[in-house]
Amino acid sequence: MTIAIYPGTFDPITKGHLDIATRAAKIFEKLIIGVYDIPNKRLLFTTEERVELVRQAIVDLPNVEVEAFIGLTVDFAAKVGAKTVVRGLRATADFEREFEMAMLNKRLSPELELICLMAKLEYQFLSSSLLKEAASLGGNVDDLVPQHVAEALRKKIRSKR
Ligand code: ADP
Fold it and tell me: How far apart are CA 120 and CA 111, in angstroms?
C-alpha cells in the first residue's frame, strides 16, 4: 500500500490544508495527517483540539487519517510505514523553508521522498497565523475554513478575552 504523511501544525486546519489533503488522497492509497505535538510553541489550540478539528474536516475522505506526533517527521514516517511526505507550497511564503527541511530530512532519511503540491490560487495567501489574527480582530473568516473550525475559532477567541 502506498502511504504518505502530511505533517503540519494545523492551528487550525484551513481550506488550504484541506485542499492539499484532498488532492494527495487521490495520489496515495492512504494519507496520514500528522499533527505536530509541540509543547513549547505558543499555539491557539491544544494538540487534542487540533487533531479533533482535522478529524471532523476529513470525514468525507475515507483513505485519510489523522494522528498527533512528537519528534522528527522522518521518525513519524517510519513509524507509520510512509515512504513519502506531502507538503503544500504557496507561491512565495514556503519555498525556502520547505527546501531547507527537505535537505535535512534527506540526510536523516535518504529513502523518504517529499512531494510538494502547489497551493490552489484562491488559498495562496491563506495561512493559519493570518487567519487567527483576522479572527481575533473580529474579521469574518468563514469562507476560509470548514464550518466547524469557524465555530471553534469564535469560541476559542471569546474564551481568551
Ligand atoms: P507548519 O508549521 O509545518 O508550516 P502548517 O500547519 O502551517 O504547518 O502547514 C502545514 C503544511 O500545509 C505546510 O506544507 C504548509 O506549507 C501547507 N499550507 C499551509 N497553508 C496552506 C495553504 N493555504 N494552501 C496550501 N498549503 C498550505
Answer: 28
User: Is 139 within a domain?
Assistant: no
Q: Which residue CA neighbors atom 21 of ligand 1 most closely?
A: 16
pLDDT tens digits, residue range 53-80? 999 999 999 999 999 999 999 999 999 9
Q: How far apart are CA 79 and CA 94, in angstroms?
A: 26
Considering only CA atoms, which residue is closest to atom 12 of ligand 1?
88
Task: Tell me if 17 CB under 6 Å of ligand 1.
Answer: yes
- Given a contact cutoff of 8 angstroms between Cβ atoms, the answer to whether 148 and 53 are in contact is yes
Assigned domain for 31 exists: yes
Give, in order, the Cα–Cα distances in Å from 86 to each of 33, 76, 155, 156, 158.
9, 13, 31, 29, 34
pTM (global) more than 0.90: yes
SS3 label, residue 130: helix
Q: How far apart are CA 23 and CA 87, in angstroms?
A: 11
Domain containing 110 — which CATH number? 3.40.50.620
Give 106-155 pLDDT, tens digit per residue. Answer: 999 999 999 999 999 999 999 999 999 999 999 999 999 999 999 999 99
Q: How many domains are there within the chain?
A: 1
Query: Distance between CA atoms of 66 and 47, rounded to whole angstroms?
Result: 12
